[in-house]
Amino acid sequence: MTNGDGQPGRSRGWQGAVLKMLGADDYQFTVTGTERISEHYIRIGFTGGGLLTARPLHPTMWVRMWFSDRAGKLHQRGYTLVDADPAADTFFIEFAIHDGSAARWAQQAAPGDTIAATFMGSKFALPEPAPKGWILVGDTASLPAINSLLDAGVATAHVFLEYQHDDDTDLPLRSREADVVHWVRRGEGIVDTLRANKFDADGHFGWVAADTKITRSAVRVLRSDFGIDRGSIKSQAYWMANAKPS
Question: Which end of the chain is more exposed for a tag (fewer CB within 10 A), N or C?
Answer without folding.
Answer: N
